[in-house]
Amino acid sequence: MTTDMHAENAPAPVPVAVLGLGLMGHALAAALLRAGHPTTVWNRTAAKADDLVAAGAVRAGTPAAAVAAAPLVIACVTDYDALHTFLDPVEDAALRGRTLVNLTTGTSAQARETAAWAAGRGLTYLDGAIMATPPAIGTADATIVVSGPRADFDRHAPVLHALAGDTPYLGADHGLTALYEMAVVGLMWSILNGWLQGAALLGTAGVSAAEYTAVAAKGVPTVTGWLPGYAKQIDSGTFPADDATLDVHRAAMAHLVQESESLGVNAEFPALIKSLADRAAAAGHGGEGYPVMIEEFRRPAARPA
Ligand code: FVH
Predict the structure, then answer these.
(1) Residue 1 in this model has a pLDDT that exceeds 70
(2) Each residue of 8-30: pLDDT tens digit?
(3) CA distance 162 to 165
(4) How would DSSP label each residue in 130-170?
């Protein structure tokens, strides 16, 4: 159940400009309006601002006009190239002294490059990554991680908190948000792909995805419960097999590959999992705990001769 946070003690109104009113940008601007912040909006396709203007937002005709309207500028567009397309032409005088919070998805290199670009334009830069979908924006269910100068994060935290109930500060390195976002979406896709593999397997026995999910979903919190202990193993570099050895896992992986192949289900995903574990075992780690596999992720796969 999403709880809108704006009923609580609303922060002092701060003028904010939002650049980019796609699915996410529109949700960000709407949440700022609900929180009582004077909000100026700009979007390449102007019509996407219409309902926000009807709800009290001010429409800017250009990115420069939007930037000039508020000391805090939030951008959320498709990618960093799109961001630079409309921000690079804005005069230094309009940018100088402002804070840009960029919530666009990109790589850590793009975040660090944009931080350097911003510094050269007299712009304070915070990089953010949204770990939520648009409907959760403005509720306690949303998380937005932020990196950049701590003082600037602290100064703008009340406005960021209008967008997400959880706004962890990751550190001064602007690239951290992108790395966290990539790590979290990688975890998301791995869970989804494992779930799809199971749905395909059980589908061969006439089990619906809903029936399968009612049982399988209980396993996700079980596995996530292991992660803090596994993290300690990775950080210490020692991998005691307190629960199961990698070899025990490998045997089950072989069954998953065999089952998929025999039932005519795609076995590429389980085969990849098994190939990584086999490599770790070949390096002598078969008797250690599962997290020993971190070594297979820390370096690129050896290229075939
Ligand atoms: N939607 C989601 O659930 C995810 C959650 C996690 C974070 N992502 C990232 O948010 C960025 C924006 O995603 P979005 O879902 O809002 O995307 P769209 O609805 O497609 O809107 C794209 C906006 O970008 C504008 N835009 C694109 N190219 C340009 C350009 N060259 N110049 C100016 N603006 C541009 C586009 O404008 P328009 O097409 O409406 O005129 C939209 O405003 C993204 O990084 C996600 O990864 C969302």
Answers:
(1) no
(2) 566 689 999 999 999 999 999 99
(3) 7
(4) E-S-GGGTTEEEEEEEEES-HHHHHHHHHHHHHHEEE--EE
Q: How far is CA 276 from CA 249, 266, 279, in A?
A: 12, 18, 5
Adjacent-strand bridge partners of 145: 129
Tell whether ligand 1 has an atom less than 6 A from the beta carbon of residue 48: yes
- In this predicted structure, what is the pLDDT of residue 196? 98
Does residue 62's CB lie within 6 angstroms of at least one atom of ligand 1?
no
Q: Are strands 58-59 and 124-130 parallel, antiparallel or unpaired?
A: unpaired
Evaluate if pTM is beyond 0.85: yes
Type of residue at 60: A
Check if 6 has its Cβ closer than 6 Å to any atom of ligand 1. no
If you average pLDDT over residues 131-135, what whole number do you get?
96
Q: What does the pLDDT look like over 239-265, one tens digit per residue?
A: 999 999 999 999 999 999 999 999 999
Q: Which two three-digit tokens encode residue 51? A: 């309902």
* Of 108, 56, 114, nearest in space to 84 by CA: 114
Q: Is the CB of 137 under 6 A from ligand 1?
A: no
The separation between CA 67 and the C-alpha centre of its own chain, rounded to angstroms, equals: 26
Q: How far is the CA of 221 from the centre of ligand 1 (A)?
A: 32
What single letter denotes the amino acid at residue 292? Answer: V
* Domains of the chain, first to last: 2-173 (3.40.50.720), 204-298 (1.10.1040.10)
Q: Give, rounded to a whole angstrom, the gap between the first and last alpha carbons of the chain.
A: 54
